[in-house]
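Honest question from a wet-lab person: if I give you the sequences of every part of a complex, can you actually get the arrangement of the whole thing, not just the pieces? Trying it with mine:
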Amino acid sequence: MRIDLHAHSTASDGTCTPAELVEAARAAGLDVLAITDHDTSAGWDAAVAALPAGLRLVRGAELSCRWYGMTPSIPLHLLAYLFDPAAAGLVAELARMRASRERRGERIVAALRVDGVDVSWQEVRGYAAGGTVGRPHVAQALIRAGLVGDTTEAFAPRWLGERYRLPKDDIDVFTALALVREAGGVPVFAHPRATRRGRVVPDELIAAMAEAGLVGLEADHPDHSPAERSHVLGLAAELGLVATGASDFHGTHKPVGLGAHTTAPVAYERIVAAAGGATPVVEG
Ligand code: AMP
Ligand code: FE
Ligand code: FE
Ligand code: ZN
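Yes, you can. This is the full assembly:
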């Protein structure tokens, strides 16, 4: 069984439509794929409708969270699997995140324009095509304007990595954990040690998150060094959490392919068993 539990579609900052994503997963030889767009479940129905025979789909999302226990606060991502997409509390927070992303996108564009960069909010929003707006859509405008060669370059410190990196109103991580569990979902901390993305939270916070209902830690991830990966595996064992692996596929926005990292079948079974049942795994 080849299981990839983290992938993005055009419902957020991936470049494959949900239908293309499930097709690509099958073509890559996967048996299980999770669709985990940023702050939305908007891609779920199209993915289910296009599900190829033999592929199982785990419906999920990647929530923009923040830990406020340190100044300045630290952003982090929580993967939420198999939650009820009609759960009012979670739905409201997802909508608030998407609205906050739009305001931040507009502010990033305004800051770029002040510095004479020829990009517009209309263009950036157009690249998101109705899905969740993210910095990769701003990156697309920078590429079009001829200022950078690719998305990775657009995340350099002089662009979106630092100079034009503006905050958004993320969900308090403990509120997010409670809302995901309340919605029957299974929370897994995405790339918890990826220092190349910026500051990471201390192990003590991960222990507190485990107390608050966290189920797993993403250990095998393209942004983890071998040392970071082993640290996360050790922490998962120590805290009794499930360790997962995933590609965090974003289509052509990132060089990594589907199935580049995978989750063991026993870990996958533990995640499915922890879900409340409102959103079952669907089989094509
Ligand atoms: P946002 O969610 O809008 O803050 O943008 C973060 C997203 O940008 C991540 O989910 C990735 O898809 C992408 N990203 C972050 N860092 C990089 C990077 N160094 N190179 C390419 N894409 C990145
Ligand atoms: Fe992303
Ligand atoms: Fe992430
Ligand atoms: Zn992701």
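Two things worth pointing out. Strands lie at 3-4, 32-38, 56-67, 74-81, 171-172, 186-189, 216-220, 242-245, 282-283. Residues 44 and 221 are 23 Å apart (CA to CA).
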